[in-house]
Amino acid sequence: MRLTRFFGRGRGDGWLRPVPPAEVTVRAVGYVRSPVRRPRPHGWANVESVIAFEPGHERRLEGLERFSHLVVVFYLDLAANAPEKPEQLDLGGGRRAGIFATRSQLRPNHLGVSVVELLGREGLEVRVRGLDAIDGTPVLDVKPYLPEYDRR
According to DSSP H, which parts of 41-99 are helical? Predict the structure, then answer.
């Protein structure tokens, strides 16, 4: 179902929201350099990795080092080729959950989002701890973690 039934109607103030696109295109801003080379379900809390940004992003990174934590959005590229696209997962013990109720990489759009500790920045390299992404994972966006917005 397209969203046209929800959008394209006035709000009474004269503003008409255009119909949003059904597909979007994004470009990697950098890539993860990590000692972890293969996907794994656990053990990410103490992993230190580097987000190596593509040239041209130097000015976009200015001031990032003022924050203690970051929100990292990345593309789970290996999962995109997985043969199985489950709607639900077996959690063991007879429990099942829909894919949106898990942290599985087998999501419809294969997006990962993690809050990580910022360890430092040098030029185009940002060092972090706790990023659950393997070596070579494309990074789509990085934002400072702001407790007033990001903490419940």
Answer: 58-61
Q: Annotate 89-126 with three-state secondary structure.
A: EEEECCEEEEHHHCCCCCCCCCEEEEEEEEEEEECCEE
Residues 32, 135: contact at Cβ < 8 Å? yes
Q: Tell me the pTM.
A: 0.86
Q: What is the pLDDT along the chain (152 residues), one digit of tens a residue?
A: 455 455 555 556 677 888 889 999 999 999 999 999 998 888 999 999 999 999 999 999 999 999 999 999 999 999 888 777 789 988 889 999 999 998 888 888 889 999 999 999 999 999 999 999 999 999 999 999 999 998 87
Tell me the C-alpha to C-alpha distance, in Å, between residue 64 and each of 30, 71, 110, 121, 123. Answer: 15, 11, 26, 8, 11
**Structural domains of the chain in order of their starting residue, each with its CATH number:** 25-83+111-150 (2.40.30.70)
Contact in structure between 74 and 126 (CB atoms under 8 Å): no
